[in-house]
Design goal:
14 helices, two-stranded antiparallel sheet, binds 6-diazenyl-5-OXO-L-norleucine, single chain, Beta-lactamase, alpha+beta, five-stranded antiparallel sheet
């Protein structure tokens, strides 16, 4: 087990040395064409302890598309706004299916398995659309506030690129509407969801924003008023559902609540100790960053800082 005297800069560079055999494996997401234009060899990591110590390596300050990591912020906001009524419209069980699957929606009468698969995130987005004054500006401000960085933005090029090819997500949105589980127009919900996914942040900004979940303090903030109990539940959801049909694997290898995105980012927390964000665009077949997962496995194994 490491302590405050551990040289985390050395630990991070040692991890990167051990990652070398995995460099070049996997590829960027290309079903959102703009994401395929990102340099696949980028790698950054930012480890941010709650006591203020931060350690970084590589491209840790470069912004990337957070994609599905945004689902943690949107779920937090929706949970803060409408409380446990949210779980009448979205379940809290792991799906064991890919993030964009339509299969379970038919069997389960339009109630998505959890808020992190695309179907669940669309319902969460619908809640935000109905409950925020300005769902575009308010969510952006929430993320800016959490990360302490007012220059965070949506990337309109990524939005347009995803909208052009969002056939599965459009199908999911219309399907949800047919079950009465969207209040707003499916296309309006889809557009807002795609904007949330297009938010760009660096590893350091993400790690800072995830202090919310590591700290588990009541949050006094413009949108949601999240209680410690709600933050505990958001961590539980990340632990069980954050990596879709690879959630068991991530839990087994890394042992932290976390969330991935097809931009190649992963953010994770060790409650009461630290949050960490890693970015490497090359993905495995489940849509999760190969080097990102491996780096976090090495981090928790070498430092002993995991919840298990
Ligand atoms: O809806 C989509 O397909 C993307 N905007 C986000 C998917 C994603 O990041 C899945 N995560 N690993």
């Amino acid at each position: 087990m490491t302590n405050s005297k551990t040289d985390y800069n050395k630990l991070l560079s040692g991890i990167v040395q051990e990652l070398k055999p995995y460099f070049g494996q996997g590829q960027q997401a290309d079903y959102i064409p703009e994401l395929a234009n990102v340099d696949p060899n980028k790698f950054g990591i930012s480890l941010a302890f709650l006591d203020g110590r931060t350690f970084t390596y590589g491209d840790s300050e470069e912004r990337f598309s957070i994609q599905s990591i945004s689902k943690v912020f949107t779920t937090a906001a929706a949970f803060g706004l409408i409380g446990k009524k949210l779980w009448e419209r979205v379940d809290i069980e792991p799906s064991g299916t890919p993030f964009n699957s339509l299969l379970q929606l038919e069997q389960e009468q339009g109630i998505p398995r959890n808020p992190f698969i695309n179907a669940g995130a669309l319902v969460v987005t619908d809640v935000l659309m109905s409950n925020l004054n300005d769902p575009y500006a308010d969510m952006l401000n929430f993320v800016r506030e959490l990360s302490g960085c007012s220059s965070i933005e949506y990337n309109q090029v990524v939005v347009d690129s995803e909208l052009d090819t969002a056939y599965r997500n459009a199908a999911l949105a219309y399907y949800l509407k047919s079950f009465g589980n969207l209040d707003n127009h499916p296309i309006e919900v889809l557009k807002l969801y795609i904007h949330y996914c297009s938010i760009e942040m660096s590893c350091t900004e993400l790690a800072q924003a995830f202090h919310l979940f590591a700290r588990r303090n009541r949050l006094d903030c413009n949108i949601p008023d999240l209680t410690p109990s709600q933050l505990k539940r958001l961590n539980a959801l990340m632990q069980t559902c954050g990596f879709y049909d690879e959630s068991g694997e991530f839990s087994f290898l890394v042992g932290l609540p976390g969330k991935s995105g097809v931009g190649g980012g992963i953010a994770a927390v060790y409650p009461d100790f630290y949050s960490v964000a890693v970015w490497s665009p090359r993905l495995n077949e489940k849509g999760n960053s190969i080097l990102g997962m491996k780096a976090l496995e090495l981090l928790t194994s070498k430092s002993g800082l995991s919840i298990f």
